[in-house]
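Researcher: Good morning. I'm working through a list of sequences from a screen, and I'd like to move beyond sequence-only analysis. For each chain I'm collecting a predicted structure so we can compare shapes side by side. This is the next one on the list. No need for commentary yet; just the structure.
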Amino acid sequence: MEPSFWHNRWQTNQTGWHESTVNSLLIAHFPSVHVPLGGRVFVPLCGKSLDLGWFLSCGYAVAGAELSELAVTQLFADLGMEARISAVGKHKLFHGEKLDIFVGDLFDLSREVIGPVDAVYDRAALVALPEAMRTRYTSHLKTITALAPQLVIGYEYDQTLVPGPPFSVTSDELHRHYGDSYTLTPLARMDVPGGLKGKCPATEHVWKLEKRQG
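Model: Good morning. Structure tokens for this chain:
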């Protein structure tokens, strides 16, 4: 998917993935990842998610990656935070108290630019990408976060009925992407009320990924 697709969605306010409340699955299951208080959480394709404010309110530091500068400007406005903006490599860094958002292409980010990460929160990032990009995304994410533990929230449904995004990502696919490096633990599965976009039944699933030992 081209960057222009996402820029257009933000500019025309077609952001159906943006939730009006903090994600309830995050609140319920993030404690199981055991991130130390004050730890730093990386949120790929973060948009202006209210989940970032929740992390900050809980005492965590947050690093995010987002293609749309408009989304990040709105995020800082919603948080009532003034951003200090600087250029870092190919990215524009929006910095606030315990908050670093890198505006630009996620695939241009390096481990050195992001800095230390204690956990990854992937809510609707993996499923935002078409199948051809998901292998590249998961490989890159493992590299730049040094196999930090992850909480992954995604969807599973009949992809032939709805084109996506969000795309359907099965448990088998998750294991294909991450099984070589992580132990995957399913935490919850639930039916999506009204189905996906009201068009077909869908299941939302939550996984904890922990680096394999040895």
